[in-house]
Specification:
By secondary structure, the chain is an alpha+beta fold. The protein has one domain: PAS domain (Beta-Lactamase, 2-Layer Sandwich). Helix content is 25%, strand content 28%. A seven-stranded antiparallel beta sheet has the order 1-2-5-6-7-3-4, sandwiched between helices. Strand 6 and strand 7 form a beta hairpin. The protein is globular. The relative contact order is 0.23.
Length: 169
């Protein structure tokens, strides 16, 4: 791990603002997002066609951001792929982060999403995450990408979360 990665306390997950994406699927989704922005800071939600990213859909999430987009109740899960439903052992679709996650997990997720919204730029996360009380930590990598909804502000975040076979260095 590079010295510029920031630990997302109290978890063993790190924020990588330089987007050193390791997983091929995440690099593909980032390239798709980058292509759709067409020189703008971010693409609009309307620019993203699920038919273009079919192979990614099981591990994709879409989260709505309501201003001021800083607390867990400001973020609502619009879509969770089937692989994520399985990983979390539940479907958060239609719930706010405050309604679906523990206080610590919701707060951490809101911090990351707030950064994406405020800076209007993607972030990468990686590390060991625990999904549920009785599960061992799982090595993960994810990318979180801002989407506008009818303007210059971020109205949604699209991302993909993948399980890693081994820890990232």
């Amino acid at each position: 791990m590079s010295a510029h990665h920031l630990r997302l306390s109290p978890f063993d997950v790190y924020i990588d603002p330089l987007l050193e994406l390791q997983d091929r699927r995440l690099r593909e989704l980032f390239a798709y997002w980058n292509e759709k922005r067409s020189g703008r800071p971010m693409p609009a939600r309307a620019d993203v066609n699920p038919g273009d990213i079919v192979s990614h859909l099981p591990s994709v999430f879409l989260i709505g951001a309501e201003p001021p987009a800083v607390t867990p109740k400001d973020f609502h899960v619009r879509l969770m792929g089937t692989a994520l439903n399985e990983l979390f052992a539940r479907d958060f679709t239609g719930r706010s982060l405050a309604d679906g996650l523990s206080d610590k997990a919701a707060s951490a997720a809101a911090k990351v999403l707030a950064i994406v919204c405020e800076l209007r730029r993607p972030l990468r996360l990686h590390g060991a995450a625990q999904f549920g009380d009785d599960h061992a930590a799982t090595e993960i990598e994810l990318v979180c990408l801002p989407l506008s909804v009818g303007g210059a502000h971020v109205g949604m975040a699209m991302g993909e979360l993948v399980k890693r076979a081994s820890p990232l260095g």
